[in-house]
Amino acid sequence: MLRFKSCPRCKGDVLIDKDVYGWYEQCLQCGYQRDLKNMTKVKPQSAPETEKVNRAE
């Protein structure tokens, strides 16, 4: 998974991946890397629904 502009060092794009030791994130621009303690599934965000107004005609 990619997270855009989320590197704490250079504000570059971060790749989140898993290896035999667990989950980690690594910046694609500067190479910054750190281990992640836990990883949960993230649901894709959808656009906020607009409130529907019922009109009596």
Helix content: under 10%
Largest sheet: 4 strands, antiparallel
Mean pLDDT: 81
Provide the succession of SSEs: EEEE
End-to-end separation in angstroms reads 49 Å
How many helical elements? 0
Extract low-pLDDT stretches.
none
Give the beta-strand count.
4
Q: Structural class, from secondary structure content?
A: mainly beta
Task: Please give the radius of gyration in angstroms.
Answer: 18 Å
What does this structure look like?
A four-stranded antiparallel β-sheet has the order 1-2-3-4, with no helix packed on it. 0% of the residues lie in helices and 30% in strands. The chain has a domain at 2-35. The protein is an all-beta fold and 57 residues long. It has strands spanning 2-3, 14-19, 22-27, 33-35. The chain contains no helices and four strands.
Which helices and strands appear, and what pairs or packs with what?
Elements: E1 2-3, E2 14-19, E3 22-27, E4 33-35
Give a concise summary:
The chain is mostly beta strands. About 0% of the residues lie in helices and about 30% in strands.
Tags for this entry?
57 residues; mainly beta; 0% helix; 30% strand; flat
